[in-house]
């Protein structure tokens, strides 16, 4: 992150990418990932060898859907934050009239 630039400049130039900053390291996340891995191994052991490719395709499609869900959730969170700021700083949550620069 370039702290010499405004947030808008950093967003425009691609300097801010929040997904890179998210590194779950809680005990709950670690336990959930361990359980997921354990169940995946158990499922693979029960499936015929030919089915592993299908399971990999399923995982890929699930990850794509999950990324889309995260992106939409992030966007809604930003919109909520903007609405909260408007309510906090503007009377009645309404923006003042736009003034053109001279």
Describe the structure.
This protein is mainly alpha-helical. The protein has four helices and no strands. The protein is 68% helix and 0% strand. It is elongated and about 70 Å long. The relative contact order is 0.05. The mean pLDDT is 85.
**Class of secondary structure makeup:** mainly alpha
- Count of discrete alpha- or pi-helical segments spanning 4 or more residues: 4
Mean pLDDT: 85
Task: Give the fraction of residues assigned to helices.
Answer: 55-70%
Strand content: under 5%
User: Total strand count, please?
Assistant: 0
The rough form would be described as: elongated
| Radius of gyration from CA coordinates | 22 Å
Task: Output the helix-strand order.
Answer: HHHH
* N/C terminus separation: 32 Å
List segments where confidence is low: pLDDT < 50 over at least 5 consecutive residues.
none
Largest sheet: none
Task: Lay out the secondary structure.
Layout: H1 7-12, H2 18-21, H3 27-46, H4 51-89
Which characteristics define this entry?
mainly alpha; 102 residues; 0% strand
Summarize the structure in short.
Helix content is about 70%, strand content about 0%. The chain is built from four helices and no strands. The mean pLDDT is about 85.
């Amino acid at each position: 992150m370039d702290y010499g630039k405004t947030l808008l400049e950093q967003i425009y130039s691609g300097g801010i990418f929040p997904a890179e900053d998210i590194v779950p390291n809680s005990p709950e996340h670690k336990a959930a990932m361990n359980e997921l891995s354990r169940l995946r191994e158990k499922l693979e052991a029960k499936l015929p060898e030919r089915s592993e490719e299908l399971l990999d395709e399923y995982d890929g499609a699930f990850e794509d859907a999950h990324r889309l869900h995260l992106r939409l959730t992030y966007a809604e969170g930003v919109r909520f934050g903007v609405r909260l700021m408007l309510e906090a700083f503007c009377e009645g949550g309404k923006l003042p009239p736009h003034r053109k620069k001279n």
